[in-house]
Amino acid sequence: MSDLQNLYQELILDHSRTPHGYGLRDEIPAQSHQLNPTCGDEITLQVHRDADGSVEAIAWEGHGCAISQASASLLAELAEGLSVEDLEVRIAAFREAMRSRGKIEPDEELLGDAAALGGVSKYVARVKCAMLAWVAAEDALTRS
Amino acid sequence: MSVSPGVDVIAPLNEAEVRRIRGDFPILGARVHGHPLVYLDSGATSQRPTAVLDAERDFATSMNSAVHRGAHTLAAEATELFEDARAAVARFVGAADDEIVWTSNATEAINLVAYSLSNASLGRGGAAAERFRLREGDEIVTTEMEHHANLIPWQELAARTGATLKVIPLDDDGALRLDIAAELITARTKIVAFTHVSNVLGVVNPVDQLVALAQEAGALTLLDACQSAPHLPLDVRALGVDFAVLSGHKMLGPTGIGALYGRREVLAAMPPFLTGGSMITTVTTTEAEYLPPPQRFEAGTQRVSQAIALAAAVGYLTEVGMPRIAAHEASFGRRLVDGLSTIEGVRVLGAGIDLPRVGLASFDVEGIHSHDVGQFLDDLGIAVRVGHHCAQPLHRRLGVTSSTRASTYLYTTDAEVDAVIEGVAGAIDFFRRGA
Q1: B388 CA: distance to closest CA in chain A (Å)
Q2: Inter-chain contact B402–A40, Cβ cutoff 8 Å?
Q3: How many CB pairs under 8 A join A and B?
Q4: Which of B252, B233, B415 minimizes the C-alpha distance to B326?
Q5: How far is B178 from chain A (nearest CA, A)?
Q6: CB within 8 Å: A39 and B435
Q7: pLDDT at residue B214 above 50?
């Protein structure tokens, strides 16, 4: 598989076309809006919690490249049912892999399908695209 | 480029000439991801020929010293070369030597004018600066297609002075609404700032019509020539504008150097923007008298080696011949628009505008973000620009948030233009696989 094919795996293209968690809800729990000023990509993301405090769902809307859209979708899929602490651990692990310039393979056990985004870390200019939703989730949690 | 239908007076560059030109640009031999570099991002920054690289290095190795001060030989030689460089750029755009002010870039050149007007509005510059004063009720006019550098300085100037900013809108194709321009430019208008060639659409705006409207209203005019000066013969006097701004690194020169052209009588009446050393005659602890232009606007240590390298760049362009470069690139503009438009799902921005164009086209691919298109092309060694190209209002007006832009120069070949068209078709296949 070439670097490019690794970057844009079928799984990623599928998520970008039919994203998980797309569509904001009227009730606004913890919400964050993030913008990538270099390309104009943006996302609004909500973290909805269950009565026990765990993440019931991530809902989001935005526009951007396939990487940013797939990444938001994969995050939404991953976050469902996690405790806030577990989600924070996963955001940190994802960030570490993204910033590693291809040196750290994302932990599939921890990140599930989102590990497929590992190829992004070789493309420094695209790390921001992959991180956009995760930064939004992190920011939303600090606001809740 | 013809005197009568069918009679071409300017021959575009032939294949052998383009090959020879390419040999002057070391970077064009580079390989990217295993492919020969196809550089189609000259609209963002152009590549530099050996003559420009050498000029900067030669200056540093044989006569580096401060200009306009010092009695030693190197200082005298450096000053002469620095002023010769100014004369070279002045000749290149049809101006007099003292009408060219060095700046770091075109953005600074526009800000210089905006802040000079701002200072005049605070009363600086005395009676001579009266025509530069903006107050509530005065208006600044710009357009919806501007680069942010020719928009935000005017937003800020309006906010500082109480003047109102008016924006000439675009039609659905992306062309300036000249009919509305005629209504917006009135006796209240103090300055009209607009681009010669859009950095997104590549079309050459009707400068003469906008200048006529501004002159009739008694307004100043500022022309953003960043995308025209590198690609078209430019004569600021013939165009009749009061100001024009240039970017060195878009015309084979280094980064860190730009220029402001200002009509002599206009510059002479303007108060300075940056102040400090090198722009004064007499200084006391309480006040200072300023030098005439251009030095009045060149406070502090100047970008000497960059100015000298820019002179080498315009020398190179002049030797090849600007009319021939324009003829070479006019065919690319057409080829890009026509070639990309035939691909299903590709919309070339401004394709429907009936104006001459340079070798630049921006396009939207349905369902595929510009970053993804650019990433795919990069994998083939093709360098293009993606994003909003510092022109968010223009993109918003045309209903897109970003676009992919291919832009050519004198060293571009037909094969490279065809490669990007083919590459875009390949990107569509790649991203639609499995869909």
Answers
A1: 6
A2: yes
A3: 52
A4: B233
A5: 29
A6: no
A7: yes
Q: Is A18 on the interface with B (CB under 8 A)?
A: no
| Nearest Cα residue in chain B from A69 | B369
Q: Which residues of chain B lie closer than 8 angstroms to A8, CB-CB?
A: 372, 375, 430-431
CB contact under 8 A, B371 and A126: yes
By CA distance, what is A128's nearest residue in B?
B371
Kindly list the catalytic residues of B.
390
Contact B150/A at CB under 8 A: no
Angle between helices B50-62 and B304-320 (to 10 degrees): 150
> Quick check: A53 and A83 in contact, CB under 8 A?
yes
**pLDDT tens digits, residue range B273-332?**
999 999 999 999 999 999 999 999 999 999 999 999 999 999 999 999 999 999 999 999
Do B114 and B335 meet the contact criterion of CB atoms below 8 Å apart?
no
- Which residue of chain B has the CA closest to A129? B371
Instruction: Render A52-113 in DSSP notation, one character per residue.
Output: TSSEEEEEEEEE--HHHHHHHHHHHHHHTT--HHHHHHHHHHHHHHHTTTTSS---HHHHGG
For range B6-25, the mean pLDDT: 88
The 3-class SS string of B234-285 reads: CCHHHHCCCEEEEEHHHCCCCCCCEEEEECHHHHHHCCCCCCCCCCEEEECC
Quick: pLDDT tens for B282-293: 999 999 999 999
- Taking the mean position of all CA atoms in its chain, how far away is CA A20? 11
- pTM, two decimals, is 0.94
Tokens encoding B417: 């233009």
Contact across the interface for B369 and A7, Cβ inside 8 Å? no
Q: Answer whether B371 touches A (CB < 8 Å).
A: yes
With CA atoms as reference, report the closest residue to A34 among A131, A144, A143: A131
User: What is the spatial distance between Cα B248 and Cα B427, in angstroms, rounded to a whole number?
Assistant: 33
Calpha distance B337→B332 (Å, rounded): 8
Residue B415, C-beta contacts closer than 8 angstroms, at least 6 positions apart: none
Q: Above pLDDT 90, what percent of chain B?
A: 95
From the list B401, B383, B431, B426, the residue with the least C-alpha distance to A64 is B401
CA-based nearest distance B103→chain A, Å: 25
- SS3 call for B194: strand
The dihedral region occupied by B174, where left means phi > 0, alpha psi between -120 and 50, and beta the remainder, is: left
Q: Which two tokens stand for residue A8?
A: 């844009």
pLDDT digit string (tens) for B362-418? 999 999 999 999 999 999 999 999 999 999 999 999 999 999 999 999 999 999 999
| Residues counted in chain B | 435
Q: What is the ipTM score, two decimals?
A: 0.92
Q: Which chain A residue shows the shortest CA-CA distance from B435?
A: A14
Q: Residue count of chain A, please give it.
A: 144
| Token pair for B153 | 């300085």
Whether residue B376 and residue A4 make contact (CB cut-off 8 A), yes or no, is: yes
